[in-house]
Amino acid sequence: MSLDELREEIESIDRELVELIARRTYVADTIAAVKEERDLPTTDERQEQRVMDRAGANAEQFDVDANLVKAIFRLLIELNKVEQRENR
Ligand SMILES: O=C(O)C(=O)C[C@]1(C(=O)O)C=C[C@@H](O)C=C1
């Protein structure tokens, strides 16, 4: 594969990543509505821990750096919380 082709592959993966981030964020909008209905706080630390543990385990399964993957998930959770706070 040429460098251009490899970069095209990365471009396509990057687009998919953004699409997945958008889908995760859209779910946060629905979660915000459920939490508001049930008078629950936006932050659920136990659930965040579960998400982080799962991210670490998935990273190990795919042989990528667990700490880096967890850092990305920390950002994704923060993005969700910002989105949820804007929606309630
Ligand atoms: O599961 C929830 O309650 C969510 O709001 C989603 C999410 C996440 O991004 O995974 C975000 C904020 C919460 O503190 C916990 C988890």
From TrEMBL:
<dbReference type="InterPro" id="IPR002701">
    <property type="entry name" value="CM_II_prokaryot"/>
</dbReference>
<protein>
    <submittedName>
        <fullName>Chorismate mutase I</fullName>
        <ecNumber>5.4.99.5</ecNumber>
    </submittedName>
</protein>
<dbReference type="InterPro" id="IPR036979">
    <property type="entry name" value="CM_dom_sf"/>
</dbReference>
<dbReference type="InterPro" id="IPR036263">
    <property type="entry name" value="Chorismate_II_sf"/>
</dbReference>
<dbReference type="GO" id="GO:0009697">
    <property type="term" value="P:salicylic acid biosynthetic process"/>
</dbReference>
<dbReference type="Pfam" id="PF01817">
    <property type="entry name" value="CM_2"/>
</dbReference>
<dbReference type="GO" id="GO:0046417">
    <property type="term" value="P:chorismate metabolic process"/>
</dbReference>
<dbReference type="InterPro" id="IPR051331">
    <property type="entry name" value="Chorismate_mutase-related"/>
</dbReference>
<dbReference type="GO" id="GO:0004106">
    <property type="term" value="F:chorismate mutase activity"/>
</dbReference>
<feature type="domain" description="Chorismate mutase">
    <location>
        <begin position="1"/>
        <end position="88"/>
    </location>
</feature>
<keyword id="KW-0413">Isomerase</keyword>
